[in-house]
Here is the input.
Amino acid sequence: MKVSLVRCTDDPEGMIAEAARISHMASGEGKEDDRDLIRRLRDWGHWSPFEFASATFFVEGVSRSCLAQITRHRLGSFMVRSMRYVKQEPDEVVVPDTVEEAGVSDDFRDQVVSNYEAYQKMLDAGVPKEDARFILPIGSKTSLYFKTNFREYRHIIDIRKTEEAQWEIRRLAEEFLDQLSELAPSVFEDQID
Ligand SMILES: Cc1cc2nc3c(=O)[nH]c(=O)nc-3n(C[C@H](O)[C@H](O)[C@H](O)COP(=O)(O)OP(=O)(O)OC[C@H]3O[C@@H](n4cnc5c(N)ncnc54)[C@H](O)[C@@H]3O)c2cc1C
Here is the structure.
């Protein structure tokens, strides 16, 4: 999995503090003042100002299983590599660590190769990619652009960076947190372990 920042709101902490101050028609006195205000907003549970900052990430090499989970977050925007137009390659599959640890990774890979051979055979026989893909595994890798606002990133991190969440989406949530906490420490610092 590779997670790269594509775009972020310029000065996201400044933007959130500026939006929050509208309620009192107040003004701030610089970065530390903005951060103090954001920490108070967090304490009060005053979350709507956090919607005024957003970030877009390019997420590469996650499974279709992870895709199914992240797309459940309805406040996100998504643009996903198409399996209708782009041909999948046999090495584009996520192999879970548990498969390696159980010593069955050769069986896993043999089965994947066999599925891809059938996929290729169908393409050669004229079956369109959008139909031939039905035989590919849920571990097939995909890439997507993902965008949402900081309130929703906090929510995703809250419920996906936990032991209850599946490992792959947990890693994705950890990546979001690592990068977002650099960009806006006062927004995400309380979510770092
Ligand atoms: C550990 C774990 C296990 C899971 N297991 C399953 C499973 O077995 N099967 C399954 O189908 N899903 C499962 N899910 C997915 C889960 O049910 C949610 O679909 C997913 O986490 C999206 O989160 P969300 O619904 O909070 O909202 P998001 O779409 O991220 O929305 C953010 C928030 O906006 C509000 N909101 C959004 N839409 C509405 C709405 N229509 N009405 C009211 N409020 C709304 C809610 O407050 C919501 O929390 C699991 C999730 C986790 C974290």
In short: The longest strand covers residues 54-63. The chain has nine helices and four strands. The chain has a mean pLDDT of 96.
